[in-house]
Every structure is written in structure tokens, then in C-alpha cells.
Design brief:
Elements (H helix, E strand, L loop, with lengths): L14 E6 L3 H13 L3 E6 L8 H4 L31 H14 L6 E2 L2 E9 L4 E8 L5 E6 L1 E4 L21 E4 L13 E5 L3 H10 L5 E5 L19 H9 L1 H15 L11 H17 L3 H7 L19 E7 L3 E6 L8 E4 L3 E5 L2 E4 L4 E3 L2 E4 L13 E2 L6 H7 L3 E2 L3 E2 L5 E3 L12 H21 L2 E6 L1 H15 L29 H8 L7 E5 L37 H8 L42
Parallel strand pairs: 1-2, 1-7, 2-3, 4-18, 7-21, 8-17, 9-10, 9-17, 10-13
Antiparallel strand pairs: 4-5, 5-6, 11-12, 14-15, 15-16, 19-20, 22-23
Helix pairs in contact: 1-10, 5-6, 10-12
GO molecular function: flavin adenine dinucleotide binding; N,N-dimethylaniline monooxygenase activity; NADP binding
Pfam families: FMO-like
Family: Belongs to the FAD-binding monooxygenase family.
Length: 610
């Protein structure tokens, strides 16, 4: 009797994977599984009626990505026909919809299905998943070996927790759950917030509303335009991108090299930090020419501590200076000297039936209130995640986050997160980090599938040491300066900042190869049973070369990490550059040599739009 193939070394057992969320992360995982695996079942539960995640949910006026459109794509999946330098939310959502169609990923996705509970069952080494069909109300009971949470980083609107919010009698809407049917023409609008969403909303609604009052609680650094040629692409440019793909590749590479050249900006006291602060302060002083306005609108914290607004200086203009009890500076975006924009340099302390009351006690009435107040970045899941012993991750992370490198959860087996705590969501291109996390998760699925593994769990000690390292690093970074940001859940000193302790390139190198000694691997039976019946997989492939290792020269994989890394990053392929400098920021350091092509544009490192 011949040996059985299913008893060969590293035979692939069937693995069942469930992912929560069909945004950029979930779709990337679907693609990676389809590309490299064969013996698996995969299901994505998505609460929305379409894919796209944050790009489906965010549809407020002017919503767009603040990363150049040709760089807000998967590294392997360019799009030649973006209509503008910064794509709007609809166009980005269409990109992901097209990605699903191209690779036939729809067969994995259950739309309008909201996961309501996940439970680990130790005896079987499985996760039980309950999801509700939002169209029929039916509860679906499912299970998997590997559970992946791809719910996104910006998916829980943060409403102001203020008295009287339910008493307001007008139309109230959050930017992250916007209703496009709301009529704004001729209305008095109250816009609460002055971050990235508000910066996009204000210039879009200003031409059609009667008045818009914007509440600015704290100042924000404003960057020059990310690209020197912001705006719509011409038909000729789009046709060239389509017919000459290398031009799109060159553009993407130039933008990416620039983004990855400025990480030291996020470290306190570095040359780039000081240069950038000097540049931005000088440019903003030119726009705000009176001392009182400068005091209110120019931050005193480090550039990058709070999310930098990439609106471009050309969108900030000075209009008439009005004085009542205080000086008001009319901020006009995209147009000069408009009179229907009223900035209030104060937060909001309460709502009234007709409007709001500012922190300073003044009342403001409005027909519509738009809360551009950001997201809840506590990382607490929408649904309970019950781990070993019935422990609920919702409760545990409400007290203290114990994540592992953006993908793992301390003591919770066979489960992973995309864009979890300590992912580089603000200091580099996020989609690239998503791809790296997908590859990392797939390496665990591969090992699980080819070894007799019951469960794989991040060790408590590893997670504690990792968090301690992050805390030590963050003392040197701008994210622990005196400002509110999403990494400390919008509270100064609220927690150890939950972004990655390094650059995106640093993250790619850190996560490329799993550190297996940081993980507890529990086996079912003999851990070496994966050796099988002594027959190799090569012997089971009738088309394989049984003498594949005989060659003329050594072309094998490099044995050291630095040699492997040098191949991946194409070391030696470009002219030497000046390290940790960006020529466009070097206004106070004329002796610094300008960099090559990268110097043509400046980009901020925030990789997601809100």
C-alpha cells in the first residue's frame, strides 16, 4: 500500500478563518488568503451594506483623503485614473469595490451582518461567533479556528458628552455618520471642531450656507500642501497615467520616499522638528497678523503632537477683523474675505434647544449642528470578545490596553487585530502597514495549518515588556507633549500613546518575521507529528524537480537579517541622500544640501483621513 499524501510532512489541514470588517484591512486579508492558500474557508462579516469601511461611513461634505490619491492604494494595486491629487471618499470607496470585483472577493463577504459576540472555547480550540443579519434580524451562529478583528481605527464616532445634547431641537449630525440629504442651503450652521474633518467641511459648505460658526477649542498646526500641484488631474494627465504606468509608479515612489524621509520630525528636539516648527510658525504668522489671533491659533506644542491639518496655507486667509467682547478672526478656506464664517475660539460646554453655549458662556443658535469631533480611539470593541475564563476584552482594555505590535492581544488565543493599538497610524502610509499586518497574520495561519497546533497566544510577559518599551520611547516623542491627540484618546497624559514607537519603515522591519518566542504555542498531541510519514511535499508534486538543490552557484536565501533586508529595500539602488532632513523644511538651515526629487513635495505622516 502506498503512503497517503495527507500524512506527508507539513500537510495542510483545513483552516476556518473569520474576519470582522470589510474595509481596507479585511479586503487585504481576503486577497492574501486567496493568493497563497488553498485549504481554507473564509468569511468576512460586515455591518454595512457595502465594503470600504471608513470610506463607506465617512461621507460628510468635502470628505477626502489627505494622502495623495496614488499613494492611498495597496502597494501592488495602483489606480491610474484617479480624478484628483487628493481623492474624495466616494472615489476611494469605488477603488475598494473595484478591488473586490477584480479578485472575486465578494464570495467571502456577508454584508449587513453585525457581529454581536465572540467566545473562545478552550476544549475545541475554536472561536464561536454570533452575527445578526441586519436586513432580516436573523442571528447567525458561526465558528472558526482563527478570528481576525478588522474593525478599523476610525469607526466609532465620538459625540460630545455635554449637557443638553438631547434637548437640541434642530438637525444634529456627526461628521462620521453624515446624512447627505440634510439641506444646508441658506441655513445657519454650527460646526463643532477644527480638526481634519472640519477643515474639509468648512470650505465645502461655506458657499451655500447663510452663516457657519466654527468652534475652535485648541490651535492646530497647518502644513503646506502635500503636493505642489494639488487639484484635479487633467484628461491628458490621466491618459498618460493609463498609457504609461511607469509614470504612476515614479510618482508613487517619489511621494513614498518623501513621506518616509521625515520621521525624525516626530522626535523631540531634532533638527527636523525645529525646522518644521520654525517654518510653520513663520508662515502662520504671515497669515495671522495680529498678536491676539496668533496667540489663539498658533500652537505652542510640538509639530505632530496633535494631528497636523494638511489643508495647505492657501486655504487659510484673513478677512475683516471684528471686535465685540473679543477679537474674532474670520478664517476663510479657499476664498478671500467671506463674511459668513464666524470663528469662536472656545470649546462648547452645553447644548440648548436652539444651539450651544461656549466655554466662555456665550450662546449661539443654529439650524444645523455638525459635530466634527472625531472618533473614540479607546480601542474598545463594539461587541464583547470573551477569551479564556470568560474574560471580556472590552472590560480589560477599558482599564489598560495590553496589545502586541498592533496585531496581538495578551492571553487571547488565535485572534488578531488589524490597526490595533501600537500600529503606525499617524506616522506613515497606513495601507502599507495593513499589508504588513496581513502578511504577519498569514504567517500564523500557515504555521497553524501545517502543525498540530491547538492555539497560539501572545505571552503576558512579552506584551508587558513591549508596552514598557513603548512607554520609554514615547517620552522622547512629540506624542507626549502637551496636547490632546487620538493616541492618548484625546486626553493629555491619558495613557501611553498607542501609535507605533518608530517610523513605518521601522514597523515593516519589526513585523516582517514573527518572534515566535513572544508567543505561547499549545499543541494537540505530539508537537512533531507534523513530520508525518517521512515523505516530502516535493515527492508528492509530480511536476517538481527532485534535484532542485543542485546548481551552478549559490543563489540561495541570505542567512543574515541585514543581507535579507538589503535585498528587500534595494540597498545601493539610489544615490546617497542626506539623512533625517527634508529640504523644503530647511528654511533656517541653508547649509543643508537639498535632496533629489523628493524635495519637490512635502507630506505629513498622517496616513488616514477622518
Amino acid at each position: 500500500m502506498d503512503p497517503l499524501r495527507e500524512e506527508a510532512i507539513r500537510n495542510e489541514r483545513h483552516v476556518k478563518v473569520i474576519c470582522v470588517g470589510a474595509g481596507a484591512s479585511g479586503l487585504c486579508l481576503a486577497y492574501k488568503l486567496r493568493r497563497s492558500f488553498r485549504s481554507y474557508d473564509f468569511t468576512i462579516y460586515e455591518k454595512n451594506p457595502s465594503v470600504g469601511g471608513t470610506w463607506y461611513e465617512n461621507r460628510y461634505p468635502g470628505c477626502a483623503c489627505d494622502v495623495p490619491s496614488h499613494n492611498y492604494v495597496y502597494s501592488f494595486e495602483p489606480k491610474a485614473d484617479f480624478s484628483s491629487v487628493y481623492a474624495g471618499s466616494d472615489e476611494i470607496r469605488e477603488y475598494f469595490e473595484g478591488f473586490v470585483d477584480k479578485y472575486n472577493l465578494g464570495k467571502y463577504i456577508k454584508l449587513s451582518h453585525a457581529v454581536e459576540k465572540t467566545t473562545w472555547v478552550e476544549d475545541t480550540g475554536r472561536w464561536e461567533v454570533e452575527a445578526r443579519n441586519l436586513q432580516t434580524g436573523e442571528v447567525v451562529h458561526d465558528w472558526c479556528h482563527i478570528l481576525v478583528h478588522a474593525c478599523g481605527y476610525l469607526n466609532k464616532p465620538s459625540w460630545p458628552e455635554l449637557p443638553g445634547i438631547d434637548d437640541y431641537s434642530g438637525i444634529k449630525v456627526h461628521s462620521a455618520d453624515y446624512d447627505r440629504s440634510i439641506p444646508l442651503e441658506g441655513k445657519n450652521v454650527l460646526l463643532i471642531g477644527a480638526g481634519s474633518s472640519a477643515v474639509q467641511i468648512l470650505p465645502t459648505i461655506q458657499p451655500i450656507v447663510k452663516n457657519v460658526t466654527i468652534f475652535i477649542r485648541s490651535p492646530t498646526w497647518v502644513l503646506p500642501d502635500i503636493s505642489t500641484e494639488a487639484g484635479q488631474f487633467t484628461e491628458e494627465e490621466i491618459e498618460k497615467f493609463k498609457n504609461e504606468p511607469e509614470t504612476v509608479l515614479a510618482l508613487r515612489q517619489t511621494n513614498e520616499r518623501t513621506m518616509n524621509s521625515i520621521f525624525s520630525l516626530y522626535l523631540k528636539g531634532t533638527v527636523l522638528q525645529e525646522q518644521c516648527k520654525t517654518l510653520l510658525k513663520g508662515e502662520m504668522e504671515k497669515i495671522f497678523d495680529d498678536e491676539e489671533s496668533r496667540k489663539k491659533l498658533i500652537p505652542n506644542f510640538s509639530v505632530g503632537c496633535k494631528r497636523v491639518v494638511p489643508s495647505g496655507f492657501k486655504y487659510l486667509r484673513v478677512s475683516n477683523l471684528q471686535r465685540s467682547n473679543k477679537a474674532l478672526l474670520n478664517l476663510i478656506f479657499k476664498a478671500l474675505r467671506k463674511e459668513n464664517v464666524i470663528p469662536v475660539y472656545s470649546g462648547v460646554k452645553s447644548f440648548t434647544p436652539s444651539g450651544v453655549v461656549s466655554d466662555e458662556g456665550s450662546s449661539y443658535d443654529g439650524d444645523v449642528i455638525i459635530c466634527a469631533t472625531g472618533f473614540d480611539t479607546s480601542y474598545i470593541s463594539h461587541y464583547p470578545i470573551y477569551g479564556p475564563g470568560g474574560r471580556n476584552l472590552q472590560m480589560e482594555w477599558a482599564e489598560s490596553i495590553m496589545g502586541y505590535m498592533g496585531v496581538g492581544v495578551s492571553e487571547f488565543p488565535n485572534t488578531f487585530t488589524f490597526l490595533g493599538p501600537y500600529t503606525p497610524v499617524s506616522n506613515g502610509p497606513t495601507l502599507i502597514a495593513i499589508e504588513a499586518q496581513a502578511d504577519y497574520i498569514c504567517s500564523f495561519i500557515d504555521r497553524y495549518q501545517t502543525e498540530p497546533i491547538h492555539s497560539i497566544t501572545p505571552k503576558v510577559a512579552a506584551c508587558a515588556d513591549f508596552k514598557a518599551h513603548v512607554a520609554s520611547f514615547m517620552e522622547k516623542s512629540v506624542w507626549t507633549d502637551n496636547c490632546r491627540n487620538s493616541h492618548n484618546n484625546h486626553k493629555v497624559g491619558g495613557r501611553v500613546p498607542t501609535t507605533w514607537p518608530g517610523s513605518t519603515l521601522h514597523y515593516l522591519e519589526a513585523i516582517r518575521e514573527p518572534r515566535w518566542d513572544d508567543w505561547e504555542v499549545k499543541y494537540s498531541g505530539n508537537r512533531f507529528s507534523w513530520l508525518g510519514n517521512g515523505i516530502s511535499q516535493t515527492e508528492w508534486d509530480p511536476t517538481a524537480d527532485l534535484g532542485y538543490y543542485i546548481r551552478q552557484s549559490d543563489d540561495g536565501a541570505w542567512n543574515s537579517w541585514w543581507k535579507r533586508n538589503g535585498v528587500i529595500n534595494k540597498s545601493g539602488s539610489l544615490p546617497p541622500r542626506v539623512l533625517h532632513r527634508q529640504a523644503k523644511l530647511a528654511v533656517t538651515a541653508p547649509s543643508d544640501k537639498p535632496e533629489p526629487e523628493e524635495a519637490k513635495i512635502i507630506v505629513h505622516a498622517a496616513a488616514e483621513s477622518s
